[in-house]
Amino acid sequence: MIKLSTPSFPTLFLVLARPLFVGVLLVLSACSRYSVSLNDNIVYEPPQLFSDFKVEDSELRTCLQGTIAEANIRSAEQLRRLICPAGSISTLSGIEVFSHIEYLGLAENNVQVLAPITELTQLKQADLRSNNVKDFSVLLSHKSVLFLNAKGNTRANCDSLQASHETQVIHLPKHCMQTNGNQG
Q: How much is the pTM?
Protein backbone atom coordinates (compact mmCIF):
# COMPACT_ATOMS: atom_id res chain seq x y z
CA MET A 1 0.00 0.00 0.00
CA ILE A 2 1.28 3.47 -0.91
CA LYS A 3 0.95 6.06 1.76
CA LEU A 4 0.44 9.64 0.55
CA SER A 5 1.07 12.51 2.86
CA THR A 6 0.16 16.13 2.52
CA PRO A 7 3.23 18.36 2.24
CA SER A 8 3.77 20.83 5.03
CA PHE A 9 3.09 24.50 4.36
CA PRO A 10 6.80 25.53 4.23
CA THR A 11 7.56 22.75 1.75
CA LEU A 12 4.57 23.64 -0.39
CA PHE A 13 5.50 27.32 -0.25
CA LEU A 14 9.07 26.61 -1.39
CA VAL A 15 7.88 24.39 -4.21
CA LEU A 16 5.45 27.02 -5.49
CA ALA A 17 7.52 30.12 -4.71
CA ARG A 18 10.77 28.98 -6.32
CA PRO A 19 9.44 29.14 -9.93
CA LEU A 20 7.81 32.48 -9.17
CA PHE A 21 11.09 33.84 -7.77
CA VAL A 22 13.03 32.57 -10.79
CA GLY A 23 10.43 34.14 -13.09
CA VAL A 24 10.72 37.51 -11.36
CA LEU A 25 14.52 37.37 -11.64
CA LEU A 26 14.30 36.58 -15.35
CA VAL A 27 11.91 39.46 -15.97
CA LEU A 28 14.10 41.89 -14.04
CA SER A 29 17.27 40.80 -15.82
CA ALA A 30 15.54 41.16 -19.19
CA CYS A 31 14.58 44.69 -18.20
CA SER A 32 18.10 45.73 -17.19
CA ARG A 33 18.09 48.48 -19.82
CA TYR A 34 14.70 49.81 -18.80
CA SER A 35 13.40 51.71 -15.81
CA VAL A 36 11.08 49.72 -13.59
CA SER A 37 8.31 51.52 -11.74
CA LEU A 38 5.62 50.49 -9.32
CA ASN A 39 2.60 52.76 -8.78
CA ASP A 40 4.31 55.55 -10.74
CA ASN A 41 7.40 55.34 -8.50
CA ILE A 42 10.67 54.36 -10.16
CA VAL A 43 12.12 51.41 -8.25
CA TYR A 44 14.99 50.71 -10.64
CA GLU A 45 16.85 53.00 -13.02
CA PRO A 46 19.60 51.35 -15.12
CA PRO A 47 23.00 53.02 -15.21
CA GLN A 48 23.43 55.17 -18.30
CA LEU A 49 26.05 54.57 -20.97
CA PHE A 50 29.06 56.90 -20.76
CA SER A 51 28.53 59.98 -22.89
CA ASP A 52 30.51 62.72 -21.14
CA PHE A 53 33.13 63.23 -23.83
CA LYS A 54 33.74 65.58 -26.74
CA VAL A 55 35.89 64.67 -29.70
CA GLU A 56 36.42 66.87 -32.75
CA ASP A 57 36.51 64.11 -35.34
CA SER A 58 33.04 62.83 -36.27
CA GLU A 59 34.33 59.38 -37.30
CA LEU A 60 36.20 58.96 -34.03
CA ARG A 61 33.04 60.04 -32.17
CA THR A 62 30.96 57.46 -34.09
CA CYS A 63 33.50 54.73 -33.34
CA LEU A 64 33.60 55.65 -29.64
CA GLN A 65 29.80 55.71 -29.39
CA GLY A 66 29.54 52.30 -31.07
CA THR A 67 32.23 50.79 -28.84
CA ILE A 68 30.62 52.24 -25.71
CA ALA A 69 27.21 50.85 -26.65
CA GLU A 70 28.55 47.44 -27.68
CA ALA A 71 30.64 47.00 -24.53
CA ASN A 72 28.05 48.62 -22.24
CA ILE A 73 30.59 51.18 -20.97
CA ARG A 74 29.35 53.22 -17.98
CA SER A 75 32.53 55.25 -17.27
CA ALA A 76 35.57 56.40 -19.24
CA GLU A 77 37.82 54.14 -17.18
CA GLN A 78 35.99 51.02 -18.39
CA LEU A 79 37.07 51.51 -22.01
CA ARG A 80 40.19 49.34 -22.46
CA ARG A 81 40.12 48.56 -26.22
CA LEU A 82 39.28 50.94 -29.02
CA ILE A 83 39.38 49.67 -32.58
CA CYS A 84 38.41 52.05 -35.38
CA PRO A 85 39.89 50.59 -38.58
CA ALA A 86 39.73 51.76 -42.18
CA GLY A 87 38.13 55.17 -41.91
CA SER A 88 39.07 58.78 -42.24
CA ILE A 89 39.84 59.67 -38.62
CA SER A 90 42.28 62.58 -38.78
CA THR A 91 42.44 63.99 -35.25
CA LEU A 92 42.50 62.30 -31.86
CA SER A 93 41.64 65.43 -29.90
CA GLY A 94 39.30 64.46 -27.07
CA ILE A 95 40.42 60.84 -26.77
CA GLU A 96 42.45 61.73 -23.68
CA VAL A 97 39.36 61.36 -21.45
CA PHE A 98 39.70 57.58 -21.99
CA SER A 99 42.99 57.35 -20.11
CA HIS A 100 42.66 53.61 -19.41
CA ILE A 101 42.76 52.47 -23.04
CA GLU A 102 45.28 49.62 -23.29
CA TYR A 103 44.87 48.79 -26.98
CA LEU A 104 44.34 51.42 -29.65
CA GLY A 105 43.58 50.19 -33.16
CA LEU A 106 43.44 52.99 -35.72
CA ALA A 107 44.85 51.23 -38.77
CA GLU A 108 44.14 52.72 -42.20
CA ASN A 109 42.92 56.14 -41.09
CA ASN A 110 44.34 59.61 -41.62
CA VAL A 111 45.82 60.32 -38.17
CA GLN A 112 48.68 62.84 -38.29
CA VAL A 113 49.29 64.05 -34.73
CA LEU A 114 49.60 61.76 -31.70
CA ALA A 115 49.79 64.43 -28.95
CA PRO A 116 46.39 63.51 -27.37
CA ILE A 117 47.68 59.97 -26.81
CA THR A 118 50.06 61.23 -24.12
CA GLU A 119 47.16 61.10 -21.65
CA LEU A 120 46.49 57.39 -22.32
CA THR A 121 48.60 56.28 -19.39
CA GLN A 122 47.64 52.58 -19.63
CA LEU A 123 48.34 52.23 -23.37
CA LYS A 124 50.29 49.05 -24.14
CA GLN A 125 49.63 48.44 -27.84
CA ALA A 126 48.92 50.75 -30.76
CA ASP A 127 48.12 49.73 -34.31
CA LEU A 128 48.63 52.90 -36.33
CA ARG A 129 49.49 51.23 -39.60
CA SER A 130 48.78 53.14 -42.80
CA ASN A 131 48.13 56.60 -41.35
CA ASN A 132 49.95 59.89 -41.95
CA VAL A 133 51.85 60.16 -38.67
CA LYS A 134 55.17 61.98 -38.92
CA ASP A 135 56.32 61.96 -35.29
CA PHE A 136 55.95 58.85 -33.13
CA SER A 137 58.24 60.03 -30.31
CA VAL A 138 55.29 61.20 -28.18
CA LEU A 139 53.87 57.70 -28.22
CA LEU A 140 57.13 55.80 -27.79
CA SER A 141 58.18 57.92 -24.81
CA HIS A 142 55.47 56.14 -22.81
CA LYS A 143 57.03 53.43 -20.69
CA SER A 144 53.77 51.47 -20.87
CA VAL A 145 53.78 51.13 -24.69
CA LEU A 146 55.15 47.70 -25.58
CA PHE A 147 54.00 47.33 -29.19
CA LEU A 148 53.59 49.75 -32.08
CA ASN A 149 52.69 48.96 -35.65
CA ALA A 150 53.78 51.97 -37.72
CA LYS A 151 53.99 50.25 -41.11
CA GLY A 152 52.59 52.24 -44.01
CA ASN A 153 53.22 55.66 -42.47
CA THR A 154 55.22 56.86 -45.46
CA ARG A 155 55.78 60.35 -44.04
CA ALA A 156 57.12 59.14 -40.69
CA ASN A 157 60.31 60.66 -39.34
CA CYS A 158 62.45 57.55 -38.82
CA ASP A 159 64.31 59.12 -35.88
CA SER A 160 61.00 59.34 -34.00
CA LEU A 161 60.64 55.56 -34.23
CA GLN A 162 63.47 54.73 -31.84
CA ALA A 163 62.43 52.45 -28.98
CA SER A 164 62.63 54.17 -25.61
CA HIS A 165 63.21 50.88 -23.81
CA GLU A 166 64.33 47.42 -24.85
CA THR A 167 60.95 45.71 -24.37
CA GLN A 168 59.24 47.75 -27.10
CA VAL A 169 58.42 46.03 -30.39
CA ILE A 170 58.08 48.40 -33.32
CA HIS A 171 56.97 47.48 -36.82
CA LEU A 172 58.58 50.13 -39.00
CA PRO A 173 57.53 51.67 -42.30
CA LYS A 174 59.61 50.40 -45.24
CA HIS A 175 61.56 53.63 -45.66
CA CYS A 176 62.77 53.38 -42.05
CA MET A 177 63.89 49.75 -42.22
CA GLN A 178 67.15 50.60 -44.00
CA THR A 179 68.15 53.25 -41.45
CA ASN A 180 67.10 51.38 -38.28
CA GLY A 181 67.86 47.84 -39.26
CA ASN A 182 65.25 45.19 -39.91
CA GLN A 183 62.77 45.44 -37.03
CA GLY A 184 59.75 44.22 -38.88
A: 0.75
